[in-house]
Amino acid sequence: MLAIHDKEKRVIFSKGKTGTTTLQNALEGINGWDKVMGEGDTTWYGIGAEEFGRKARQEEIVAMLSALDYDLLFVIRKPWARYVSGWKEMLQDYISALIPEDEFTEFWDKLITDPEQLIKYIDRLFYLTQFVCSEEQAVEHNWGRGFTLHTNYHTCNWLYMCNQFPNATIIKTENLTSFMRRIGIGPRVRSNVSKQSDIDALETALKECNHYYLIEKFLYPEQRKYDNICQRL
Fold first, then answer.
1. Cα(70)–Cα(4) distance, rounded to whole angstroms?
2. 3 in helix, strand or coil?
3. Domain range spanning residue 222?
4. How is the beta sheet containing 2-5 ordered, strand by strand?
5. Cβ-proximal residues to 13 (8 Å cutoff; 6+ apart), any chain
6. Which of 89, 121, 200, 209 has the smallest set of CB atoms within 10 Å of its CB?
7. Number of domains present in the structure of the chain
């Protein structure tokens, strides 16, 4: 999510699966927050082909506005919780491309309640998305092996941005409600909330799949960054 208040020179930014859908929906109706969007690219502020030869990434807009002395606010979530939630979205997106909409819920319920089949599906997706990562990627991310699943918007390691912009205000997902109250947003029904039973089943399957040791390796540097950030709060 990226939200910009030009008058107050404030920027709220987070990567996918940080629990910000409710905040995003609330900000879209508040005067002053006239540039609000979820995941994806944007051409705001004239940053487009003339600047980068493509649409600007949200990270690039954050960097540009930081240089213009905008206050940055980053929303972060526990890496493992974000990763599991990201996997759920990816799995559901893969399925939705194959299954008619009226059959989706039944198919998903069968998959998420069948541990053996769910693990098999997860391992197959790892196998099909593996790529040889560069030496630079291996050092920076501690990957060892690369998977396009781990470069996805919803699962990628991104907390390095908190080190790149050390003056940014950090908001933990579990503190979003109190943050919303501070900026004048009253109680809201939470949007895009997953069933806890789905999350529990997926969490167990990820821990029992053949690639879990690689998941741990991938998330290790992100967890360390998260712990260090929380120590500074």
1. 9
2. strand
3. 2-232
4. 35-37, 2-5, 10-13, 71-76, 169-172
5. 1, 2, 3, 58, 62, 72, 73, 74, 75, 161
6. 200
7. 1
Q: Which of 129, 126, 109 is nearest to 201 (CA)?
A: 109
Amino acid identity at 86: G
Give kind and range of the element (H or E) at residue 26.
helix 21-27
- Per-residue confidence in pLDDT tens, the chain, 233 aa: 999 999 999 999 999 899 898 899 889 878 788 888 887 666 666 554 445 445 567 888 899 999 999 999 999 999 999 999 999 999 999 999 999 999 999 999 999 999 999 999 999 999 999 888 778 777 766 666 788 898 888 999 999 999 999 999 999 999 999 999 998 887 676 666 789 999 999 999 999 999 999 999 899 999 999 999 999 88
DSSP secondary structure of 155-193: TS--THHHHHSTTSEEEEGGGHHHHHHHTT----PPPSP
How much is the pTM? 0.90
* Alpha-carbon torsion (137, 148, 61, 23), positive or negative: negative
